[in-house]
């Protein structure tokens, strides 16, 4: 008989924090010392406790993992995308964790992409990069850049083997297959090639993990000779670099949460001085795309949900209106092609695509019949094309790739990601499931949308268990998505709901603005209103409802645990931002200064300090009857540090010791968790097994 060890108890080391005459004692601040052996010992003890408390679920975890694996075509191949004389694609191989990036030459008369239904390599395939070979000997692996030069000769790629999102940039000669001696450590996401592929632009971060410099690297030279093209000294701003679809300009994107500025360099003159499209003005955001002898500018200058303008490449500061602002229709992006433009937008909580022909034809939206769906442009690297590549999905339709004929306005389904038969041997049929939208009423009378999916025939008498998911920050929209792992819940009678709460962008910029800064609590009360609505209207009941969210959605999880612990039987908080006030008070930490325009600056403003203190989960742990909590984190996460959930769980266990709290730390991973697809499936199986246990269905 195995004797159960007690739950870990973190030592208490009082650390005083004083701001705005407010004195706070933090007894678990010591857990931020990542290099302290006691910290690692505590995390190991929490992992052991979690494994002990969930040992009875090992069989179910294996069963759920096998269901994901069985339903997934493990050897698969993406729909190839044409660029120049090649079809580019990625394929996966059964038993291998990572993708294999490939290309194959376009053959005479070949106008449609070659499709491999069984995932077999295409005849004549050239392997550009095999993630499995790169990952050998490492517990974690991620690609940052993957950028083929305009002439197809070179590949710039970058790798991360710890999860901290600091990448080493390398260049491969695709003609010889050899790696060039060029090696640049400490890079960030984003690269751009010059026209002749002699120069590569890239980005690095400062000590606070803020992307702040754009560099110019001449191929074949040492990294120490690289030149800084732009250094951003204002700590509120990030920088990025990209090449326009026309391949005529290098764009240097400079943006804070509220303000942006774009500088351009002709791609055929990479040593030229960057020219400013429009100087930054506080509160004005804009993005730039190149088309012909003009720049297209998507902006919010006097246009809350954004408008589209254009400007001559000679006088980019003079903006001419092109699409006027329409309140409630949020314009999110514009993509330029030789003969048409495509605007990505959202209206009534759904994504959409609007095509603007440049031959005098009428603008039109691409229509889809499902009431809930997500659509967006897929890989469209060619500037001159008569087709658009789209990606489409919904809560019941797997990821689907379409070509849209711009002349006939016809959609052609190229491929829908296969879902193989489940444990019952029956093929996946979307009609076996239902999706619909419901609306909850928030405390202030605001109607909050909820998307739901469930197996057909699931009862509406309050007896069905339910998982409610939320995020609600940064104007990020939780648009409908398909999940193979979710099927294991739906087939066991679980309803899955997504609460489209304020702070996200589902209903336009105002929806975001009303869930940030000193209106942040709307995010939390909206989520609680959605949970109570689901119980009140018979979708589920509080003792059958589990909440789930990650990152800023993890802050949401911690806040609603304090706000309405009676509304849930369990909470899953992944890489949760639960110690938000302490983090936002420290400008030396990654992201802090850039986040002040999202949350407010509690260092300078006592009102912001008091407001954040009133909702930050860690600050507000109380002797309540909390639902069971599963917190997941990663030791090398640079976005939300591991110590936030570690401190939170320690305080929960000390203040409300009757609760069931688990902390699981990935010791070799970053913000996104395990990097390999099989490892990710195992993590999802772990979470779903815990959820089903809360429902008594383990």
UniProtKB/TrEMBL annotation:
Its EC number is 3.4.21.83. GO terms for molecular function: serine-type endopeptidase activity. Residues 8-416 form the Peptidase S9A N-terminal domain. It is an enzyme of class 3 (hydrolase). Signal peptide: none annotated. Keywords: Hydrolase, Protease, Serine protease. Residues 481-696 form the Peptidase S9 prolyl oligopeptidase catalytic domain. InterPro entries: AB_hydrolase_fold (IPR029058), Pept_S9A_N (IPR023302), Peptidase_S9_cat (IPR001375), Peptidase_S9A (IPR002470), Serine_Peptidase_S9A (IPR051543). It comes from the Bacteria. GO terms for biological process: proteolysis. Belongs to the peptidase S9A family. This is Protease 2.
């Amino acid at each position: 008989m195995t004797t159960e060890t007690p739950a870990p108890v973190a030592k208490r080391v009082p650390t005083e924090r004083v701001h705005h005459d407010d004195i706070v004692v933090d007894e678990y601040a010591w857990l931020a010392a990542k290099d302290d052996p006691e910290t690692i010992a505590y995390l190991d003890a929490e992992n052991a406790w979690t494994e002990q408390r969930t040992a009875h679920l090992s069989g179910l975890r294996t069963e759920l993992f096998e269901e994901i694996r069985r339903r997934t075509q493990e050897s698969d191949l993406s729909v190839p995308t044409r660029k120049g004389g090649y079809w580019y694609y990625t394929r996966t191989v059964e038993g291998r964790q990572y993708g294999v990036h490939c290309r194959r030459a376009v053959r005479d008369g070949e106008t449609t992409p070659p499709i491999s239904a069984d995932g077999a390599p295409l005849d004549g395939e050239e392997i550009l990069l095999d993630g499995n070979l790169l990952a050998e000997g490492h517990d974690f692996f991620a690609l940052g850049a993957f950028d083929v030069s305009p002439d197809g000769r070179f590949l710039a790629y970058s790798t991360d083997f710890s999860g901290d999102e600091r990448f080493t940039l390398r260049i491969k000669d695709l003609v010889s297959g050899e790696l060039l001696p060029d090696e640049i450590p400490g890079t960030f996401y984003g690269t751009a090639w010059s026209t002749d592929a002699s120069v590569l632009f890239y980005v690095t971060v400062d000590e606070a993990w803020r992307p702040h410099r754009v560099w110019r690297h001449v191929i074949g030279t040492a990294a120490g000779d690289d030149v800084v093209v732009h250094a951003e000294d204002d700590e509120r701003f990030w920088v990025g670099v990209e090449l326009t679809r026309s391949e005529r300009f290098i764009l240097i994107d400079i943006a804070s949460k509220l303000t942006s500025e774009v500088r351009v360099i002709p791609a055929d003159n990479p040593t030229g001085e960057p020219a400013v499209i429009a100087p930054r003005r506080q509160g004005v955001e804009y993005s730039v795309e190149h088309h012909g002898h003009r720049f297209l500018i998507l902006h919010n200058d006097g246009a809350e949900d954004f408008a589209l303008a254009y400007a001559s490449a000679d006088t980019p500061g003079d903006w001419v209106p092109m699409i006027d602002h329409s309140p409630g229709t949020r314009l999110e992006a514009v993509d330029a092609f030789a003969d048409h433009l495509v605007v990505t937008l959202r209206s009534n909580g759904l994504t959409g695509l609007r095509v603007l022909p440049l031959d005098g034809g009428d603008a039109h939206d691409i229509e889809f019949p499902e009431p809930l769906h997500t659509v967006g442009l897929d890989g469209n690297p060619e500037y001159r094309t008569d087709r658009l590549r789209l990606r489409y999905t919904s809560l019941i339709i797997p990821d689907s790739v379409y070509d849209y004929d711009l002349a006939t306005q016809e959609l052609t389904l190229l491929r829908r990601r296969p879902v193989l038969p489940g444990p019952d041997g029956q093929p996946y049929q979307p009609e076996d499931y239902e999706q619909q939208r419901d609306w909850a009423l928030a405390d202030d009378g605001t109607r909050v949308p909820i998307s739901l999916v469930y197996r057909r025939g699931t009862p509406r008498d309050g007896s069905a268990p339910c998982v409610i998911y939320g995020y609600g920050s940064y104007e990020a929209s939780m648009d409908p998505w398909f999940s193979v792992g979710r099927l294991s819940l739906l087939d066991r009678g679980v309803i899955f709901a997504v609460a489209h709460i304020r702070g996200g962008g589902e209903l336009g910029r105002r929806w975001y603005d009303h869930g940030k800064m000193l209106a942040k609590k709307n995010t939390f009360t909206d989520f609680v209103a959605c949970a109570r609505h689901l119980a009140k209207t018979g979708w589920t009941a509080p003792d059958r409802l589990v909440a789930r969210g990650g990152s800023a959605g993890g802050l949401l999880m911690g806040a609603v645990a304090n706000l309405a612990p009676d509304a849930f039987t369990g909470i899953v908080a992944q890489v949760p931002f639960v110690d938000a006030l302490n983090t936002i008070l420290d400008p030396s930490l990654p992201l802090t200064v850039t986040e002040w325009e999202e949350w407010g600056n509690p260092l300078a403003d006592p009102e912001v300090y008091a407001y954040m203190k009133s909702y930050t989960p860690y600050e507000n742990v109380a002797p309540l009857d909390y639902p069971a909590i599963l917190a997941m984190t990663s030791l090398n996460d640079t976005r939300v540090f591991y110590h936030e959930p570690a401190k939170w769980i320690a305080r929960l266990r000390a203040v409300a010791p009757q609760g069931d709290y688990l902390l699981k730390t990935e010791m070799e991973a970053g913000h996104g968790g395990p990097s390999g697809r099989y490892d990710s499936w195992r993590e999802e199986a772990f979470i779903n097994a815990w959820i089903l246990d809360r429902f008594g269905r383990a």
